[in-house]
Amino acid sequence: MVGWLCPSILSVQVENVKAIIEVEIQVPIANQRLFLNGRALSNASHLNQAGVGEGDLLLLQTIESGSRPQRSGGGDPNLAMNPDGSAANPLALQRHLRQDQNLMRRLLEVQSSL
After folding, report:
1. Considering only CA atoms, which of 52, 42, 51 is closest in space to residue 4?
2. pTM, whole model, 2 decimals?
3. Number of other residues whose CB lies within 10 A of the CB of residue 17
4. DSSP tag of 19
5. Where does the record place the region Disordered (predicted)?
6. Counts for the chain of helices (H) and strands (E), in that order
7. What is the rounded distance in angstroms from the CA atom of residue 46 to the CA atom of residue 18?
8. What is the C-alpha separation between 43 and 51, in angstroms, rounded?
9. Which residues make up the CATH 3.10.20.90 domain(s) of the chain?
10. 103 vs 9, 42, 49, 71, CA distance in Å?
11. CA pseudo-torsion sign 45, 43, 19, 87
């Protein structure tokens, strides 16, 4: 899952962002990992202290109760994530993302350099 950040949230602790995510998608904080450029963000750090800037994209990885990474796209093994938050199959992930017109529109709005 990819999300977009607005400037006002950058001073918030990562754990509080995860609390918002928990309310929105019903995934407990303990089952969430947020990544910036392949690096996991610590719950205790603030987004701006972790190097997150306006317009940056974060990757949310959800972990099932058994500590296995949850796969998106209906369980497609080609969309699995590595423990560091990178795509196990980057080409399959790119194809999947390109097929989602709404997501592509939002990505281009936030990251026009894409």
Report:
1. 52
2. 0.56
3. 23
4. H
5. 65-90
6. 3, 4
7. 12
8. 14
9. 14-62
10. 21, 27, 28, 18
11. positive
Looking at the domain covering 14-62, what would its CATH class be?
alpha beta
Burial (Cβ within 10 Å: 0-12, 13-18, ≥19) of residue 65: exposed
- Length of the chain equals 114
**Dihedral over alpha carbons 59, 82, 88, 74 (to 10 degrees):** -70
The pLDDT assigned to 42 comes to 93
Euclidean distance between CA atoms 97 and 93, whole angstroms: 6
* Residue 18 and residue 32 in contact, taking contact as beta carbons nearer than 8 Å: yes
Tens of pLDDT, residues 41-80: 999 999 988 998 877 888 888 887 654 444 444 456 667 7
